[in-house]
Amino acid sequence: MTDKQSKAREYVLADLVDATNEVDDAMNLLTEARYPVPAALTAHLQAAREQLAAALTIAKQGDAYRPRCAHQCPNHAHTCDRTPTHLSDHRDQQQKGTHTCSWPNEPDHITIRISGGSDDLVEVEGCEGADEFNCWGIGLTGWRGDLIGGTDTETLRIYAIYNGIWTFAATASDESLPMPDWPIRITDHPDVGHSALVEIDAPAGTRLTNVTALGGDR
Ligand SMILES: [Zn+2]
Ligand SMILES: [Zn+2]
Ligand SMILES: [Zn+2]
Questions:
Q1: CA 74 to centroid of ligand 3, rounded, Å
Q2: Region Disordered: which residues (predicted)?
Q3: What is the pLDDT of residue 218?
Q4: Is the ipTM of this complex over 0.90?
Q5: Separation of CA 216 and ligand 2 centre (Å)
């Protein structure tokens, strides 16, 4: 815990104790009251007292402030208790004598890389359907492909145009469909001087389809 966090914890603990005392005072007043007290009122105060006690228990645990992965277990109500950047399986909190379980840490996103190879080749990596595609044409060398996400309505259309340097564009596949909000990075290719590098963070399971070479008279 950082200094700031332990300071915050100290204040929260003090406030919870104050709040508990206030509720206790209110309950004592009602107990001593010489007028009829609605049962629901007493019940709510009693519930508040129990909730505050539960909050206090959590606030006292130093371990409660540790950042967690919190990935939802697919089979139970618990979440992953490991650190946010952990590798391998997710795991629930392990306590003596209680049921524990783990579940696979499958990435929910994949990164798809697209770049130009030679002057008539487009390379796609990182998804189903990825390959090297020949796309030579007279007048215009270009390439088009659709990345289809988990649902068929999530489609990102990629264009690659060669004009001495491979250039890329992304758009919706149809005017009636939104363009997916997948993060797209276009940077200088570290290894290929005549191409940019496109990196797309798409949902796991995204596949490449509808690949077409642009330009004619091949
Ligand atoms: Zn579980
Ligand atoms: Zn986890
Ligand atoms: Zn289990």
A1: 9
A2: 84-104
A3: 45
A4: no
A5: 51
